[in-house]
Write a structure and sequence with these properties.
- This protein has helices spanning 2-19, 24-30, 40-50, 58-78.
- With 79 residues, it is mostly helical.
- α3 runs antiparallel to α4.
Length: 79
């Protein structure tokens, strides 16, 4: 189960990287070399949206993930 979960997380991160390009202009505005990559917590949030439970819609979860990535980028740039 652990290997399957790790594979799923790695595959999801690769697909996100390939399909959702990070905007270099935003990184420059924030003063970071690059915007952060998708985290495991972000994947969990996206999964909650896709599972048949009373959870946020996929678009809402994706927006939330983007907001978290922006916050992480700000934290990185403030160091």
């Amino acid at each position: 189960m652990t290997a399957a979960a790790l594979w799923f997380a790695a595959q999801t991160k690769l697909e996100w990287e390939r399909e959702c390009l990070r905007d270099v202009r935003i990184a420059l505005e924030m003063g970071v070399a690059a915007l952060p990559a998708l985290s495991t917590a972000n994947i969990c949030e996206l999964m909650r949206a896709a599972l048949p439970l009373a959870q946020p819609k996929v678009a809402e979860a994706a927006l939330s993930v983007v907001e978290r990535l922006v916050r992480r980028a700000r934290l990185i740039s403030s160091r």
